[in-house]
Amino acid sequence: MMKNFRAVAAAALLTVAAAAVSADHPDTYTVKRGDTLWDIAGRFLAKPWLWPEIWQANPQIRNPHLIYPGDVISLAYLDRVAVQPGARTDAPITGVPLAEVEPFLKNLRVVDSVEGMPYVVGIEEDHLRAVGKQVVYIRGVDAQPGQRWAVVRPTVRYTHLDRTVCCDLMHKDDLDFRGDHLIDFENYWTSAVLPDKGSELLGYELRQLATGTVSRAAGGGVDTATLVLDGVGREVRAGDRLIPVAAQEYDLQFFPHPPKAQFEYGRAQVLAVADEVSHGGPRDVVALSVGSRDGIDNGTVFSTWRVGSLTPDRVLVGDERGEETIPRGDHVRLPDEFASHVMVFRTFEKVSYALVMDGIRPTAIGQELKHPDATQ
Prior knowledge:
Helices cover about 5% and strands about 35% of the residues. It contains five helices and 23 strands.
């Protein structure tokens, strides 16, 4: 699986400024069928997310998005990367093609509210659950025969508390099948949405369960439309919501690049790890606390960092004291620790989803998002 997925990681080929080329690189490399941009960049280059700058500095490269098997890449000069075109008999190698990453993506989205969304009200033969090829009955929308709908379930509510003392607080609340949540009093100030106190709702996460086609509209004394589920998907139950099926859920390819600006410390964090409790690794999907309003778009690459602990200086205060009795001034801040690189593949206004591309530590909730080249 890992071998087949090599294209996911950081980025595009031919990207590097002077010190970025590996010391033991050959003078040239011929692109081979089956190569991925990650293979080549990982083998010879560093900082692949800087590739647009290198393309712009090399006008002899006509299209920065396309290289082909047979092209010869010159690595002889540290201050430039050039390409000698080869035969054009095979398909080009582009950024990060959707086909290489789609099996690992989670069909998640974020909305501002779940109120008023159409929903499943019943299942054929009064079953409690429905699966592929079964019929469900939907309400709350003027659905017409032939229309395509996706069945989704609210799973998480994300909130953000803007703090002036140190760092922002990000929190997620699990939701019940109706999309309602219970206040967690242990984390009350991140569960309660109080705009006048600097707290903000980032959105409700919806997980897609199944898709289907409307076979019959409401009318003639019947209050519901009929939706025939497709052959694949998860179990559906009454209370699940519906959204129209989008023609194209994802970009066809991704061109990795660094974020447009560095965020204030504590603002950009990992919100959640899909299908995991708190930690994930390569090929896992993570939710991020920044979105399109923050300048994030698909292909944005971050490095994730475990936030350095605030620990008491035991040499100064002694080992016998309990940590809760030690004042803040007798604590020392430890450095942040690099964990992984992630690439955004789906962007919403306040939240985005990214794929973990590589890492040396687990990617975890609460980790800080930084420029991919950050050193601390």
